[in-house]
């Protein structure tokens, strides 16, 4: 599969994740406005992919030829397009650091980040595969995935789903239970599509079936990615992750988080300080463009939640298992 986020002929090129799985197509984004819109519509999504998109967005702004101040203002628009995944600001900041060298220097830095991404993800998910094998006894494994932390959520390879690729290569995966991931269905649309492409057996389930599956002994390990990890090891990830972790702890199922170090926000003491994106009510009150809830229904639609470190078996990055570092 091509890179989820790339650069060609002066444009940011993304796999259009809104169109999947019905159509596999790319979008060429030539302005910061177009990129911000793609980020907010989730045409490009997933923490590491957002970091790469943000960095390339700074290159778009730099090539547009405005003053340094104008480029910085555009960079801020990119960094705040979505608030929870720290990788977005991280990518923007790193590319912006090269602004003094001109647009080509910014682009070179952004492209270096894209090159690094696959290697970091392969390494982190390889370490996590070792953790999964240490924490479990049954072979082959029955895994559970929430949201999409695969190739599509990164530039290439994936984080939590990257663990599945490593284990599948070794013939160690029996099947994956895929949480559909309400309300935007990153699981049933994207994770299921990636598993099908890779020939990994899977079943889609409603998010609310996860606890039952665990109670029946159908899950050997839960694997998720992360959007921001606080210094104390609390993990922000797709809404529903926290409930999944509570169920996993109750049933003694290992709960493994996989992310690049760029997802760790050492400036944040605990998950309580992580800003949680709230998205528009229509994502809940409508389905496929058809109104479901009463006309005057209000909605609470947080896109992420925070799982306390105590519920996490291991946070694994390219450096191995991460030890929480509570701030004094
Ligand atoms: C490797 S991706 C990890 C997370 O970014 C992923 O699990 C997630 O929550 C993505 O949310 P999304 O709203 O689809 O951007």
From TrEMBL:
Record-stated family: Belongs to the EIF-2B alpha/beta/delta subunits family. MtnA subfamily.
Keywords (A to Z) from UniProt: Amino-acid biosynthesis, Isomerase, Methionine biosynthesis
Pfam families for the chain: IF-2B
A GO BP annotation: L-methionine salvage from methylthioadenosine
A GO molecular function held by the record: S-methyl-5-thioribose-1-phosphate isomerase activity
Site (Transition state stabilizer): 147
Function description: Catalyzes the interconversion of methylthioribose-1-phosphate (MTR-1-P) into methylthioribulose-1-phosphate (MTRu-1-P).
Entry binding sites for substrate: 45-47, 82, 186, 237-238
Assigned EC number: 5.3.1.23
Catalytic residue positions: 227 (proton donor)
Protein's UniProt keywords contain Ribonucleoprotein: no
Chain's gene name: mtnA
Record NCBIfam families: eIF-2B_rel, PRK05720.1, salvage_mtnA
Name used for this protein in its record: Methylthioribose-1-phosphate isomerase
Taxonomic lineage from the root: Bacteria, Bacillati, Actinomycetota, Actinomycetes, Pseudonocardiales
UniProt entry tagged with the keyword Cell cycle: no
Pathway linked to the protein: Amino-acid biosynthesis; L-methionine biosynthesis via salvage pathway; L-methionine from S-methyl-5-thio-alpha-D-ribose 1-phosphate: step 1/6
Top class in the EC scheme: isomerase
Biological source species: Amycolatopsis carbonis
Catalytic activity, as annotated: 5-(methylsulfanyl)-alpha-D-ribose 1-phosphate = 5-(methylsulfanyl)-D-ribulose 1-phosphate
Tree of life domain: Bacteria
């Amino acid at each position: 599969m091509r890179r989820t986020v790339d650069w060609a002929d002066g444009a940011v090129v993304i796999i259009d994740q809104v169109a999947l799985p019905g159509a596999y197509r790319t979008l060429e984004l030539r302005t910061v406005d177009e990129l911000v819109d793609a980020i907010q519509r989730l045409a490009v999504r997933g923490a590491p992919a957002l970091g790469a998109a943000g960095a390339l967005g700074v290159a778009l702004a730099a090539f547009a030829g405005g003053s340094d101040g104008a480029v910085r203002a555009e960079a801020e628009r990119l960094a705040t397009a979505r608030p929870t995944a720290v990788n977005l600001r991280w990518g923007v900041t790193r590319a912006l650091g090269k602004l003094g060298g001109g647009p080509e220097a910014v682009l070179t830095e952004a492209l270096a980040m894209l090159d690094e991404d696959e290697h970091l993800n392969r390494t982190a998910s390889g370490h996590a595969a070792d953790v999964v094998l240490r924490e479990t006894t049954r072979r082959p494994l029955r895994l559970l995935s929430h949201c999409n932390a695969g190739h599509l959520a990164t530039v290439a390879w994936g984080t939590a789903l990257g663990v599945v690729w490593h284990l599948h290569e070794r013939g160690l995966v029996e099947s994956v239970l895929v949480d559909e991931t309400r309300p935007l269905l990153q699981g049933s649309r994207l994770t299921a599509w990636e598993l099908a492409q890779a020939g990994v057996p899977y079943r889609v389930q409603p998010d609310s079936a996860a606890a039952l599956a665990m109670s029946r002994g159908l899950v050997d390990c839960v694997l998720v990615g992360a959007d921001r990890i606080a210094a104390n090891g609390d993990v922000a990830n797709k809404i529903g992750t926290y409930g999944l972790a509570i169920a996993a702890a109750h049933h003694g199922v290992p709960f493994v988080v996989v992310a690049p170090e760029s997802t760790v926000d050492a400036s944040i003491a605990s998950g309580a300080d992580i800003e949680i994106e709230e998205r528009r009510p229509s994502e809940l009150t409508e389905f496929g463009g058809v109104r479901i809830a009463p006309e005057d229904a209000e909605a609470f639609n947080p896109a992420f939640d925070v799982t306390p470190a105590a519920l996490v078996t291991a946070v694994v990055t390219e450096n191995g298992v991460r030890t929480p570092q509570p701030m004094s």
